TrEMBL record, chains A, B, C, D:
<dbReference type="InterPro" id="IPR005624">
    <property type="entry name" value="PduO/GlcC-like"/>
</dbReference>
<protein>
    <recommendedName>
        <fullName>Glycolate utilization protein</fullName>
    </recommendedName>
</protein>
<dbReference type="InterPro" id="IPR052517">
    <property type="entry name" value="GlcG_carb_metab_protein"/>
</dbReference>
<dbReference type="Pfam" id="PF03928">
    <property type="entry name" value="HbpS-like"/>
</dbReference>
<dbReference type="InterPro" id="IPR038084">
    <property type="entry name" value="PduO/GlcC-like_sf"/>
</dbReference>
């Protein structure tokens, strides 16, 4: 089960990485059942990305894969067109990463938004590595 | 009219088929008016597929055709672009199958999610055959 | 963690009790994070009570107490007026019961609707006792 | 303008106070426009109180008064019956406190849920005092 200290460590590591990249982001951490555990919005992060960060984390938690891996199932020509409309709308671009314990069990997910998708994914990986 | 025992038989048959395929799925059965009749989530089924199973069943019940047949109406180049956004959002990939009585009257629909779309459709057909 | 067989046993026990009482009900079983695990609607159960059964189970799962115990917090004169509007709307009358393992850990909740509140609570208790 | 470091200080102070009281709570901090700034759920906090903490903070931020002061406007016999249904539903019991700078300008609000309303308000005041 994801602890608050793990969630806070993930957010701190993500914010450190974001500062290195020079971007201001929102970082959301959800538990394995997609309930909010911790959240932080860096100063200057754009407001519209609050919901995107939450959505990326929710997407990664609900399916246990990265947010962009969900897109591989539903992008044009893929076998699950429309999957992105499930669960109230998924966020299907980089920045959502599942969190797993050493045995591979799902602990939750982190979602990052505010930079470019490439930056967001970089920051999310840094956050996940701290758990 | 779809009975509870029919719905339960559909779910049991679907779960048996899923076990043969080695996947854990959610199976939803709705009546002909798209109201929930019965549901079962197999242990280990991914949480994100609960809503997908319900959505596939709802799509099949509302239009009386399989979920992927709805996609044929709204996919790129088809005559009804945007149909997938009706009814609060349809699930337009395999796994939703209408249930009909021996005279062909619509009884409801079953929706399966948790495996690949091909597996989900296979399981849904097994479930439908038990009604 | 609540298993499918436990959830099915709860629904079967509830349906048996409902038959003894001579009422047709909806029975919903959610896991400890309030995600749907299993559901059954008895033939003749009123459609409006599908959502009520789900809502009672969700209320009991989210707060770990019976649905009517939530009402004790928010009824007129109680210390938490408006709590019932949280979480998209709670169902605060009898019929929602938390499920716990022998050590007292929350496993999920069962929600019953279709009879009188007294009958619903009776059936929910019978369902919970089977877990 | 509320900074992330102020929001984090509020949450840390609230968590410290909650530990003294022996309760596990959710603490939400919103900015003056009611957008999420930071959030933390203590281990063991009840899931249903995530939304309540967010709702109390939103209520306090939107009106610039405590969540229970909003109730004074809409409780039975008060001049604004139904106000509690505005803004998607307000949380109108103790635990939401506005945050102000030394000149009295609104910076945002903190919302706490998980203990009794009296405990939640105590924790929220401790959190607000740290800003």
């Amino acid at each position: 089960m994801l602890s608050l200290s793990q969630a806070q460590a993930a957010i701190a590591a993500g914010q450190t990485r974001a500062a290195v990249l020079g971007v201001s982001v929102n970082i959301a951490v959800l538990d394995a059942a997609a309930h909010l555990k911790a959240f932080g919005r860096m100063d200057e992060a754009v407001l519209g990305s609050i919901d995107v960060a939450l959505g990326k984390a929710r997407t990664a938690a609900l399916f246990g894969i990265t947010s962009e891996a969900v897109w591989d199932y539903c992008k044009p020509g893929a076998p699950a067109p429309g999957l992105e409309r499930s669960n109230g709308g998924l966020m299907t671009f980089p920045g959502g990463v599942p969190l797993r314990d050493p045995e591979g069990r799902l602990l939750g997910a982190v979602g990052v938004s505010g930079g470019s998708p490439v930056q967001d994914a970089d920051i999310a990986q840094a956050a996940a590595a701290a758990v």
